[in-house]
Write a structure and sequence with these properties.
mainly alpha, YutG-like, binds magnesium ion
């Protein structure tokens, strides 16, 4: 019987492998985060975006969501659910919304900015999100949950990158003008 507790490193590897199995790479997710943040930061690197995606994929809450979401899509492809939810999930019904709930749950770990970044990705469908959405319309393919989960990981990574940049900026500025003692 399989274990139920996994280390951060194991959770990262299991998430990475499941995503790859579904045709999604860490680089593609990082690319969305990069493009979202490049608008605001000139010296952004892909490396910090990739590191953020990897970090996010190692959190327990996110591990459970990624693993569950991918299994729901797979079982929907195999027509393992009963009517009417089978047809509703297969059709990726716009008014279903449970896929967005899982996405929001991931993005909410990064506050209101994480949520609005997810909203932007959900509406504009950049890069791999668009590809997953289009592929999901083919017979025998279901990406109802995967597109939201991938978009939300990108939004979380993008927000984490913005936090890192803000922190670096604060450290740089505080060297130039340290807080006055009365404000410490
Ligand atoms: Mg969806």
């Amino acid at each position: 019987m399989s274990r139920i507790y996994y280390s951060r490193d194991e959770m990262f590897q299991l998430n990475r492998d499941r995503l790859l199995e579904r045709g999604v790479t860490i680089e593609e997710i990082a690319e969305i985060a990069y493009n979202q943040q490049a608008k605001y930061n000139d010296n952004l690197t892909m490396q910090v975006c990739i590191e953020s995606v990897e970090k996010i994929l190692s959190y327990r809450d996110i591990f459970h969501i990624v693993q569950l979401a991918i299994e729901i899509d797979r079982l929907t492809e195999e027509e393992k659910f009963r009517s009417p939810i089978q047809e509703i999930m297969r059709a990726d019904l716009g008014m279903f919304g449970i896929d967005e709930i899982l996405g929001l749950s991931i993005a909410s770990n990064y506050g209101v900015i994480g949520q609005t970044n997810f909203g932007d990705i959900d509406v504009n469908k950049p890069g791999v999100v668009k590809r997953l959405n289009d592929e999901g319309k083919k017979t025998g393919v279901c990406h109802t949950f995967l597109d939201d989960v991938v978009g939300a990981i990108a939004a979380a990574a993008s927000t984490r990158v913005a936090q890192i940049i803000s922190e670096n900026e604060a450290m740089r500025e505080s060297k130039d003008s340290p807080l006055r003692p009365s404000l410490k």
